[in-house]
């Protein structure tokens, strides 16, 4: 079995908490590219345009292991090139990322609503991992799992790259107990507590996941823990981690989570900067045995849901 080689370290520092893009020059048996610039122009012409590639080369934005690339260097397959993308302006999410726990291996953060965990789509620098890298001065920080952008609460980040696999394995191996809190309509006809099992599918490019017939691949425990008039407070304990699982299961019970823009129907996307009416879903508890130290951990979020604020002391 051929062992995959480790890529060289990036010669560019992070920018705004984001790593540079790394590309490896592919084989060119037909001799299409005489220079590095020829390849970069052809590779990124569709994405950013040939003129922008030329400007980035003039500005010294492309860097190889031996220094800045001007584009006239002879093409050599297998070499690496790094550069930083041009980030589109992003509307800042006006909520802090809280730190619940930190040691030399992990950071447990309280992620606010509307902040993505990792860079994706139009959310790049306004993400939890980018913010934490900058604020904590931990450039190697990586998430061990992902929390939806619209969901608030606890997320685990790993400080050292060599430890990431161990902590990711906790989640992939279902060795983490996760407890969520949600606010939704109260319906006396919904018999709780209940274990909800169903088969959930999520198609690429389709916003909403859906339940279909077949062998269940998703399981959630649902319990009503409080009532205030027409609203109920629910404890949700997922045994699996399908996309939108808790939101799908609550909708299937007939009590969709308050302010859900996807279930029961997909609503028009909110305008940038509209941080009103957050999804009333909170990752409240993370509980696991540390895979490195063997120490048992239980963390609880310090956040509360707007529709069901925690009582104030006194």
In terms of DSSP E residues, the strand content is 25-35%
| Unreliable spans | none
Number of helices: 5
How would you characterize the largest beta sheet?
Answer: 11 strands, mixed
Structural class, by secondary structure, is alpha+beta
Number of separate strands: 15
Query: From N to C, what is the helix and strand string?
Result: EHHEEEEEHEEHEEEEEHEE
CATH architecture classification of the largest domain: 2-Layer Sandwich
Q: Termini distance?
A: 65 Å
Rounded to an integer, what's the Rg over CA atoms?
A: 23 Å
Shape: elongated
Give the number of domains: 2
What do you see in this structure?
- The chain is α+β, with helices and mostly antiparallel strands.
- The chain is built from five helices and 15 strands.
- It has helices at residues 36-48, 50-58, 128-136, 164-172, 245-252; strands at residues 21-24, 63-64, 67-68, 80-83, 98-102, 106-111, 142-143, 152-158, 177-185, 194-201, 210-212, 218-228, 231-238, 281-289, 296-300.
- Strands 5, 6, 7, 8, 9, 10, 11, 12, 13, 14 and 15 form an eleven-stranded mixed beta sheet that branches.
- α1 (36-48) packs across α2.
- The chain is elongated, with a radius of gyration of 23 Å.
- The model has no long low-confidence stretch (mean pLDDT 94).
Question: How are the secondary structure elements laid out?
Answer:
Layout: E1 21-24, H1 36-48, H2 50-58, E2 63-64, E3 67-68, E4 80-83, E5 98-102, E6 106-111, H3 128-136, E7 142-143, E8 152-158, H4 164-172, E9 177-185, E10 194-201, E11 210-212, E12 218-228, E13 231-238, H5 245-252, E14 281-289, E15 296-300
Helix pairs in contact: 1-2
């Amino acid at each position: 079995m051929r062992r995959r080689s480790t890529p060289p370290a990036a010669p560019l520092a992070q920018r705004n908490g984001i790593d540079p893009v790394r590309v490896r020059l592919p084989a060119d048996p037909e001799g299409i590219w005489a220079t590095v610039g020829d390849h970069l122009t052809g590779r990124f012409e569709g994405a950013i345009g040939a003129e922008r590639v030329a400007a980035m080369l003039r500005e010294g934005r492309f860097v190889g292991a031996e220094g800045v690339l001007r584009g006239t260097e002879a093409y050599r397959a297998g070499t690496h090139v790094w550069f930083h993308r041009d980030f589109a302006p992003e509307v800042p999410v006006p909520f802090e990322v809280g730190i619940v726990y930190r040691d030399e291996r992990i950071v447990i953060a309280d992620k606010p609503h509307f902040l993505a965990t990792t860079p994706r789509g139009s959310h790049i620098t306004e993400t939890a991992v980018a913010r934490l890298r900058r604020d904590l001065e931990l450039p190697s920080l990586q998430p061990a799992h992902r929390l939806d952008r619209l969901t608030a609460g606890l997320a685990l980040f790993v400080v050292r790259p060599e430890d990431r696999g161990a902590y990711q394995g906790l989640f992939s191996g279902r060795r983490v107990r996760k407890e969520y809190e949600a606010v939704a309509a109260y319906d006396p006809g919904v018999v709780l507590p209940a274990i909800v099992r169903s088969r959930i599918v999520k198609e690429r490019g389709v916003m909403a996941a859906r339940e279909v017939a077949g062998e269940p691949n998703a399981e959630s425990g649902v319990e009503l823990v409080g009532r205030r008039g027409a609203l109920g407070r629910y404890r949700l304990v997922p045994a699996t981690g399908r996309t939108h699982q808790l939101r799908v299961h609550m909708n299937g019970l007939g009590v969709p989570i308050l302010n859900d823009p996807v279930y029961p129907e997909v609503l028009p996307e909110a305008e940038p900067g509209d941080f009103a009416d957050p999804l009333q879903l909170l990752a409240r508890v993370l509980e696991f045995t540390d895979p490195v130290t063997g120490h048992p951990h239980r963390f609880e979020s310090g956040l509360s849901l707007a529709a069901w604020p925690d009582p104030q002391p006194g």
